[in-house]
Design goal:
The chain is mainly alpha-helical. The protein has 22 helices and no strands. Helices cover 71% and strands 0% of the residues. Helix 1 runs antiparallel to helix 15, helix 5 runs antiparallel to helix 15 and helix 17 packs across helix 18. The longest helix is centred in the last third of the chain and has 37 residues. The radius of gyration is 23 Å and the shape is globular. It starts with a helix and ends in a 16-residue tail after the last helix. It holds the Pfam family CstA.
Amino acid sequence: MNAIWIALFGTVCFVMGYRFYSKFIAERIYRLEADFQTPAHTYRDGVDYVPTNKWILWGHHFTSVAGAAPIVGPAIAIYWGWLPAILWVVLGTVFAAGVHDFGAVVLSNRHKGHSIGTLANRLIGQRAKLLFLFIILILVLMVNAVFAWVIAKLFITFPASVLSVFIQIPLAVWIGYRVYRHSGSMLLPSVIALAVMYGAVLVASEVPLLQFDLVNWFGGADAPVVGGFNGTSMAFLVWIVVLMVYVYIASTLPVWKLLQPRDYINSHQLVVGLALLYLGLLFGAPEMTAPSINGEAEISWYPLLFITIACGAISGFHGLVASGTTSKQLDKETDARMIGYGGALGEGMLAMIAIIAVGTLFASGADFTATYSSFSAAGSNGLGSFVRGAGQLAGNLGIPEHVGSTLIAVIVVSFAATTLDTAVRLMRYIIAELGNEYGMPVIARKHVATSIAVVTSGALVILPEGPNGFGSGGYLLWPLFGTSNQLLAGITLMLVSVWLKRQGRPVIFTLAPMLFLLVMTLWAMGQQVIFTWSGFGDADRNWLLFIFGSLIMVFTLWILLEASRSFRQGEATPQGQALSSDESP
């Protein structure tokens, strides 16, 4: 099938979903109020609570959630064929992700900008809150480890991308000071920053001296260095250390200094990247050489597809961003529709083009099968296949393939870095909250909590050792990331449903995707914990994933019991009755 028809189908579904379904949800279910005083105004502090223009906030939210995950997951899941992957991305985005992300923003906005973890205490109870915080902590730890691994691997594979990525940091700081100290629009400075970054891509792609090829600096992939480490493993270790230092600084700065301006630049990068890929698709009109259904797959897509594609269909991490940072910057409550639901649709567009890029990369179905010979092979080859496939699509516009691949790598790294330091910031919040909860105020201090987040994230990313040695095992964390991510999304939808019921509003539109997601994810999690990570059967035992997975399953089931009791006992607020004090305009 020609890939244009697939893209057209998905785009029409997304447009119709925003035009009609999100409007229905906004007016009839969440009931947005234009004159509601948002927490960004009520608790304005210039650090976390900052009223922000909806386009800038959309850029921050979109790029925070649209990291590497909506690329990596679909690029792996195409192992089962492009048809089930596309259907889950499109239907999941319209009926689950949009409602989830939108609902998380509204729920937090109506409760003083509190995070989802804190809201669990108010809606379900103290015990559920602590269990939920631990699940969130594990998820964010997974996000940090997986995304750091992705960035390090891309830096190693595409060293010409490093210069452009590092140039973005001072450019973003300059924009932040220019706009918030001297006023003015971010648009023109952001366009200038993009021009400088892409100029760096062109130059670095042609000048080897400007490529940070640490593998060769350490003697090459085959040359042992210290303690048996070769050039690749040493380069990986160095990049992880550099990334951890960066996220420590970035996650402790006020949001206007780096986070917002860099995310605004990245929102334009995302638009540019999507435009390049979709225009390349339009002009090239490639055929999908990957099979629609892979009949040779060694394992069934059902239910594993729903945890492999997490971001891009629905993602619990989005709820953390929506309630952890986005809701604290919401200028008007009515902006939540565009930012929450619209951000989810944008990520769906990214996931869809990721499937198409991989599906059109190979010359034949046999070449696809050779690369995607097993699920583990899909895990190790998926990201690289996307970058090469995206470079091939960009090549249809006359861009040299090596330059196109470097440009795509820069875009992916920029998104992943945005998500990484946002996740570390969220992890700091959670650690501080747990410190206060258990009477350890030292842990609640900003730099202590950040240090714990950075050290544990760095340690986890280098712990798993894959089949190719140190630094190659990051993709082993992906199934645990996917399961914990989807369970968190289900729990977030559950919290929104409890709140809606107490307000006397229909809950079916949040309850239905919640039930589907929890059933599929718990089923997949059970398979992974019992048959794969435990070593029961033919697989090797993986204690790290088995322990983490078992804890998440137990905590989730416990929370569901608490929530079920709360849902049955919850009293709906009679229509017309005043809302509670923290919800009144």
